[in-house]
Write a structure and sequence with these properties.
Largest sheet: none
Strand content: under 5%
Number of helices: 9
Shape: globular
Order of helices and strands: HHHHHHHHH
Number of strands: 0
Radius of gyration: 18 Å
Number of domains: 1
């Protein structure tokens, strides 16, 4: 736990240096600029879409920026040579960036909608959705040497994670096959938080259990790719 606390402090320092918190606040202000001119009756309809967009920005792109910062500063090799374990290294990133995402989401929801939302599905939706986007962003950033190359390729996994659940949620094509996508659950939870979705018992279980299972698979994938693209290339093995 001492190593994890140290890693978290390092990530907080890096996040401050890279101005991730500033960018998160700026993102929240942009979403508020979209929501506040709307009538109060329309805000709960728009807020799940807004929060999904915010999760995508903070989750997917912030972690990619963090990885490429470490590559550029050549600190990744130094981190690998320390006793820090992979789960501590990645957990520190996730804890810091999830905290930023959750803070921004709660502020945006509270300013736009007061306390009319349901806090438990809101927190669960943001937490699970951000974790999914963070790990996918982390995985996809590992093989690339430059942020430019990654940014072009990242549009594909980003679309896969976001577009099908949004199509289902909006009613354009509410086919059950779209439940296979891991971000479907968090989006349903956000809809429930603002009274736009009445979750059945099985949907409530699915909305939490399916993302958790996907997170376990993605975590293992991240570990394998980290060894392949970071550890082995650094000559640490």
């Amino acid at each position: 736990m001492t190593r994890l606390r140290t890693a978290i402090r390092l990530e907080v320092t890096v996040a401050a240096r890279q101005k991730f918190l500033h960018a998160g606040v700026f993102s929240g202000l942009i979403w508020l600029a979209v929501l506040l001119p709307m009538p109060h009756t329309l805000r709960p309809v728009a807020e799940p879409y807004v929060l999904v967009g915010d999760i995508a920005i903070i989750g997917f792109f912030f972690v990619g920026g963090s990885v490429f910062f470490e590559k550029q500063e050549r600190t990744l090799g130094a981190i690998i040579s320390t006793p820090l374990r992979f789960w501590e290294y990645l957990s520190a990133k996730l804890i810091v960036l999830v905290s930023i995402s959750l803070f921004v989401a709660i502020v945006v929801a509270t300013v736009a909608d007061g306390f009319a939302y349901r806090p438990v599905p809101l927190v669960l939706g943001v937490l699970l959705g951000t974790l999914l986007m963070l790990i996918v962003g982390f995985i996809t950033s590992l093989p690339f040497a430059s942020v430019t190359d990654w940014f072009l390729a990242a549009t594909i996994p980003l679309a896969i994670m976001l577009v099908p659940p949004l199509i289902h949620y909006s009613g354009l094509w509410p086919h059950p096959v779209l439940y296979v996508f891991p971000t479907q659950g968090p989006l349903l939870l956000l809809g429930a938080a603002f009274g736009q979705v009445a979750l059945t018992a099985w949907q409530s279980v699915y909305a939490v259990a399916h993302p958790v299972v996907c997170l376990a698979v993605l975590w293992r994938t991240a570990q394998l790719l980290f060894v392949r693209y970071a550890v082995e290339r650094s000559g640490a093995l």
